[in-house]
Hints:
Distance between the termini: 37 Å
Helix content: 25-40%
Order of helices and strands: HEHEHHHHEEHEHEEHE
Amino acid sequence: MSVMMKPLFSYAGGKSRYLKHLGRYFVKTNTYVEPFVGAGSAFCYMNYYSLASKFVINDINHHFMKLYADIKSNHEDVLREALAISNEYRSIDEREVPYFISDQRDLYNANPTSGRCLFFANRAFGAILGVDQQGRLEGAFGYHLDRRSKGKIISVKDVEEWAKALQNTEILSGPYAKVRVPGNSIVFCDPPYRGVTVNYKTKFDDADYTALFNWCSELANDPTISVIMTNYSDGLFFEGLCRDDGRVLVEYYDSCFTNGPKKLRGKEILMVWNSLGPTQRQGKLTVTRDSASTHRPLESKAE
């Protein structure tokens, strides 16, 4: 693979743009575990550089995990269906698009096939598929339904590369805390962004972030497990958790999150336990009033 494998769809909160920061902590290991895989940018990076012998991916979004499982077992069928739907979509009159999407949504809810899921993931804004309490797709699927893009909706090459990469991957769908992590692993946790989780149709509040942080900390009691967690920083919340733990290496980088017609700009915090990076660094964060004030909450700016 001469070019790095790409995610199958763009995902809100995806890490493709930030791999230059994360990559320093993605090193050779036995097992790579990603409990919030989403579109899998970091998974693509670890595969491209052959940094793990085994991979474990998980997400609470069962639509996407079924898609990955079906691509692993029979990607030809997934491609055949997705291409047929996308070709029909591109051929119809613009005025027929809402009716076409509505019909496809009803077909998916009656029989949730992965080819149709792949089509919707590529059409929905940030791949955020609106779901109701029963897990059925609903809504208009975001901002990309007007077909302004003339490029291909489905990439055959990307699906084929994912099919190869997934052969050595355990695919799960459930709560992160149920993911079993063996020794000699790297665990990358990229949960929904704090303060904007309404976009993910997933409840994740401060108690959940604290529970996840504690789960990461417990994993790090095994010195052979390196744990990486990332999220938006307001300069206080995650910093307080890191200060209480006392073992976490903390770094920051600029981040931008598109939320409908607006962009949210701020600082992303990178928290690392048992760093396996080239410098083998391990740090203790000290949060002062001055240092905390330099990291402001997310700023919302119109496009």
